[in-house]
């Protein structure tokens, strides 16, 4: 793990605390999820759900997950053998990569990527091949030829995150068709990270890769309660996949954590069944927060690329006269009292993301407003 050091989030959050800055770096909400969800967890603790839950997850949650995949996407999974509860999507990513990639195998991943992908591919002894998402037509997308060129004889997996952190891209059906075509042609397994499945804006629609022709049988889908229910500290996620893949992932998972979070599992089961209207309210409020932050960032001199989903906006720093997002992100707390994350840390080809920083908008309106006001100070002649 040499070379991985501490994550950028630890570094930037430390900087935020030290300088008293507003932290728009790390993506966690500053308001709670639905009250009845929280109450269900409290009741579960009072009711005695305090010992190891079953390894695959409590049956109530596995059944609720299977029902959610069926109701929302028409995807049928057997809660007994095709659903596995994990410690957040993060453990799902770890266990899936350790289960399905071995030394020398290649894993295709779109950059910028969620940082744990690179770490876990390395821990699996595998090699990552990155395909770069670049701005085109107001959103980030990839070149299909670049994707095809990334496939080699050792390629086993492709990791797909949509809605995508940090670019905010929601892959269109056409983009997913390209990915599915590559999976079918080269016999690849897809791992999809769908933790923002509910958080899409305007007319963007989240389409699970597993719904495309021939893909259910070769897709390991990951999601989580953290983003949907504003409960990122609950670290309750899940895997849905054909039984042999779930068995492989569970074989790894049982030695990572075995099991966790009995009361949260029960609460999330309740949430998936009864709080989706609340999630829709969250989606709407985030859409408004996105617009609020974008308007403010543009007024402060950044150029932004409007995200179609997630918590994040990518801001181009060049109009402000900067070229290196890392430098700006390190200076921003002192200069403006705001923390952002330099996007280049999510790339292998750092140059492609050097001029972007990532801001999170999953914050109270007054926090966004204050951050924007502080950022306008950057325009003061340097
Ligand atoms: C937040 C996030 C995760 C982690 O999910 P947890 O359930 O908190 O482990 C995984 N992938 C992406 C893209 C994320 O943004």
Labels describing this entry:
four-stranded antiparallel beta sheet; alpha/beta; 382 residues; binds pyridoxal-5'-phosphate; 13 helices; 15 strands; seven-stranded mixed beta sheet
Short account of what is shown:
The chain has 13 helices and 15 strands. It is an alpha/beta fold. The radius of gyration is 20 Å and the shape is globular.
Describe the structure.
With 382 residues, this protein is an alpha/beta fold. It is 42% helix and 17% strand. It is built from 13 helices and 15 strands. The protein has helices at residues 8-19, 35-46, 59-73, 88-100, 115-123, 144-150, 173-186, 225-228, 243-256, 262-274, 276-299, 325-336, 365-375, and strands at 22-23, 83-87, 106-111, 127-132, 134-136, 139-141, 155-161, 189-193, 219-224, 236-240, 303-305, 312-316, 338-339, 341-342, 356-360. The chain has a 7-stranded mixed sheet, sandwiched between helices. A 4-stranded antiparallel sheet has the order 11-12-15-14. It has a two-stranded parallel ribbon with strand order 1-13. β5 (134-136) and β6 (139-141) form a beta hairpin. The longest helix is centred in the last third of the chain and has 24 residues, at 276-299. The chain binds pyridoxal-5'-phosphate. Residues 88-90, 114, 161, 165, 193, 195, 224, 226-227, 232, 235, 237 line the site of pyridoxal-5'-phosphate (PLP). The site of pyridoxal-5'-phosphate has 14 residues, from α4 and α8.
